[in-house]
Amino acid sequence: MILGALLLAVTACGGGSDSGSSGDGKGKAGGEPTAVSGQSEAVVSIAPKDGAKSVDTSGDLKVTAAKGKLTEVVVKDAKGAKIAGEISKDGATWTPSSHLAAATEYQVHAVAKDSEGRTAAEDSGFTTLTPQNTFVGHFTPEDGSTVGVGMPFSLRFTRGITNPEDVEKAIEIKTEPAVDVEGHWFGNDRLDFRPEKYWKAGTKVTVRLNLDGVEGRPGVYGEQAKTVSFTIGRNQVSVVDAKKLTMKVTRDGKTVKTIPVTTGAPGYETWNGQMVISEKLTVTRMNGETVGYGGEYDIKDVPHAMRLSTSGTFLHGNYWGGDAFGNRNASHGCVGLRDVRGGWDKDAPAAWFFNQSMIGDVVVVKNSDDRIIDPDNGLNGWNMSWDEWKA
């Protein structure tokens, strides 16, 4: 009798497997929250529609949520590269931060929650248009190069740009150490970037050209997706005084050499202003006909030539000038340094300066009887004030 009573008590305390109810008699465990059930009321919409072809690279991609708020939007191409974007504060929309690449397949995954915390998801895929007309930007300096403190990052586009803001927005420049870098358009096919003052020696510059898919003008799209890096070398700025007929070479704040020169003769005066060495040629031909001076000269072996302007201003070796260096201005507008024919004498002033110079070094000409060089005549935007440049 006692054993039977114990068995009955154990059964009652255990609430046997067929009891069918919990202690509160309401069909659920006491104290547990009520589970959310049913389908989410949130509605996610993605444009363009799934499977769409020839989608425009700007403006067509939109993700919205109704009766809920977006919590996640992922847009990526076939290689897994994601498109950055931002969900609005009210959670109603997501917009991309940049344009899309052309001729590219994209997948979109979006999630939203309703007021009860229930989620709804939507997936879609589309392909952007394949442009019939494209443009690229030819740039200087070259990737991986070391350049002087005056070197801008300069792009020349193969087509005239009528949407400059979109193009400029697609170019990202980062520097180490950080410095503000701004762009300036010269006409509709050239865009240069520079800081307010010459670069600090040792600065590392990285440029991301995200031009693929940018509509630079109606129906004409960029096709570049490239990263370019260059480093700023030591600080060398040389000052040519056309009155004193000297060039003072300063490196990292110290004068290292003063060289006798000859500049433009009366009627052929050298431009004043800040000029950047954009090209170095061990030997070149200089023909007066190419710069509007007819047959006044044609020298086929000019040594140690460094370009200062697009229009033909050079700083170069001169073996035919006699005693002009330091004594009189006798050139057709160039800055001449004494040299020997063939350029073999490494101790000649022109050879020394050529070997001590790099693309991007600055040459300043002052006290010449001519105006300041135009900022777009070469890489010479330093002749504009910072306010003019940013405007």
Describe the structure.
The protein has 391 residues and is mostly beta strands. The protein is built from four helices and 28 strands. The strands form seven sheets. It has a five-stranded mixed beta sheet with strand order 22-21-20-28-23, with no helix packed on it. It is elongated and about 100 Å long. The N and C termini lie far apart (104 Å). Mean pLDDT is 91; it is low at 1-35.
Radius of gyration: 35 Å
Shape: elongated
Query: In what order do the strands lie side by side in the largest sheet?
Result: 22-21-20-28-23
pLDDT < 50 stretches? 1-35
Distance between the termini: 104 Å
Structural category is: mainly beta
Number of strands: 28
Helicity level, as a percent range?
Answer: under 10%
* Overall pLDDT score: 91
Largest sheet: 5 strands, mixed
Could you give a short description of this structure?
With 391 residues, this protein is mostly beta strands.
List the defining traits of the structure above.
mainly beta, five-stranded mixed β-sheet, 4 helices, 28 strands, disordered N terminus
Could you give the topology of this structure?
Layout: H1 2-14, E1 43-47, E2 52-55, E3 62-66, E4 69-77, E5 85-87, E6 93-96, E7 105-113, E8 119-128, E9 133-135, E10 137-140, E11 146-147, E12 153-157, H2 164-169, E13 171-176, E14 182-186, E15 190-194, E16 204-210, E17 215-217, E18 220-222, E19 225-232, E20 236-241, E21 246-251, E22 254-260, E23 273-276, E24 279-287, E25 298-307, E26 314-318, E27 335-338, H3 349-356, E28 362-366, H4 386-390
Parallel strand pairs: 2-8, 9-18, 11-19, 20-28, 26-27
Antiparallel strand pairs: 1-3, 3-6, 4-7, 5-6, 7-8, 10-12, 12-15, 13-16, 14-15, 16-19, 17-18, 20-21, 21-22, 23-28, 24-25, 25-26
